Amino acid sequence: MRIAIEAQRIFRPNKHGMDFVALETIRELQKIDKENEYFIFVSPGEDRCLESTENVHIIELKCPTYPLWEQYALPKAVNKLKPDLLHCTSNTAPIRTAVPLVLTLHDIIFLEKRQSSNKSWYQEMGWHYRRLVVPRILQKCRKIITVSKFECNRIREALKLPQEQITAVYNGYSQHFRVKAKEPSIIRKYISADDYLFFLGNTDPKKNSPRVLEAYYLYLQRSKKKRQLLIADLKEEVIDGILKELQLEEIKPYLSFPGYISNQDLAALYNGAFAFLYPSLRESFGIPMLEAMACGTPIIAGNTSAMPEVAGEGALLADSYSAEDIAQKILQLEEDDSFYQKQVDYGLERVKLFSWRKTAEELLKIYKEVV
Questions:
Q1: Is the Cα dihedral 134, 139, 140, 143 positive or negative?
Q2: Tell me: the pLDDT tens digits for 265-274?
Q3: Which member of 38, 63, 290, 342 has the greatest number of CB atoms within 10 A?
């Protein structure tokens, strides 16, 4: 088979969820499949995180904007190459292409009622672009892949798709996320404390940042330890705005907010954290939960959407809409050493069910089925 894969953003330095899914899956395909030929379409970038091999070819396409790259440059290059299929990995695809299409649709949050508008202009434009493109490409997809059974059912029901057109393929996690000794030299780049809570938030409303900060305030009122909170992916001005709106400015000295954290440093920060907070309002999967559990760090996840499915029945799940419940779950970990250790052990066992190799093997089956 001659397989084209869209991986437009994997060379950008500040990668996020969908970028890592595409990158890690391609790396595994590179390891396990020496028979088929792959053409990986990317946009130029500073982080050359993937190298060509004998049967995996990297093709760089330059274009000033993402919509032009996807709707003009990509289909032009693909139609010239004439592969057996094109796999688009990040929710959208060219509206016009002459080859069979496989789409990874991570979620349909952009079609659901919004909690609030995105604070990021880039995210807001992406939201409108997905709403415009996705309905126009669904019927052209030979196969639609999503990342959890929850999302599979949600998409099928919302978009009235045939059952055989969509399937769930779980994500994995990178193997550098594992239990290891604390690394103060890395931790100190982001927070001054040795023992802290860790929250991976951003400006996306689904990450529930205001309620997490409210829960942290309640935690500080009752905790004897008063652990600091490390917040990734939120700039100081955004945090200041949330604290002002909630009238919680007094907790700011307990917060560290370094902004974007490189993926290579994340493992050290998970290992150094007392607990990882992930009480989102909506997740189609939730790779950070696996990363934290693989590092032996208990998680507090939301009890909504795909999080219970991925974290499993033994995980510590909080009511994502209740700051009080989130705070109580933190205190439960802090005040019960035996319960804390059970959560550590549970997480280490749970993550054995997930790997990028399994993801790649499932994708390869789908490619063969489509061709």
A1: positive
A2: 999 999 999 9
A3: 290
